[in-house]
Amino acid sequence: MPAPLLTSDAPLPLQDAPGQPAAPLRVLLVEDSALIRERLLDLVASCEGFAVTAEVESEPQALAALAQQRFDAVVVDLQLREGTGFGVLRALLHAPQRPLTMVLTNTSTRPVRERCLALGAHHFFDKSNEFDRVAQALDALRATLHRGRHP
């Protein structure tokens, strides 16, 4: 696959210029299945105020995308074309401003869930029956950030 498409615990949004409309919150998709990425693109598009600004299928591509730009939310699978989602989670632990981090995987055992949460994931969703919870988490993030901007 080509290079990424560039299109604290609480995530912080990019700052908007005074008097300007709010910029969309930036989402990184880390998923090796093209079909699942397409579903995630549609899901994020259905969430007001969000834009997928990079989509990648491997750990090295995810790390490159994280070095190139800041994201407000990251959706990561654990089994990737190269590397793993665990490596992405480890990198996000050390990010100066951690994005909302969601693991979306078919590997949804209790030990895997606990490991992901220990590595800083905010949410852990099973692809087969919790796919739509990604949208709920994004909507909750937007609502939280909106309240923070407008007390």
Automatic annotation (TrEMBL):
Modified residues (4-aspartylphosphate): 77
Keyword Phosphoprotein: yes
Gene Ontology BP annotations: phosphorelay signal transduction system
Record keywords: Phosphoprotein
InterPro entries the record matches: Bact_response_regulator (IPR050595), CheY-like_superfamily (IPR011006), Sig_transdc_resp-reg_receiver (IPR001789)
SUPFAM superfamilies reported in the protein's UniProt record: CheY-like
Protein's UniProt name: Response regulator receiver domain-containing protein
Response regulatory domain segment(s): 26-142
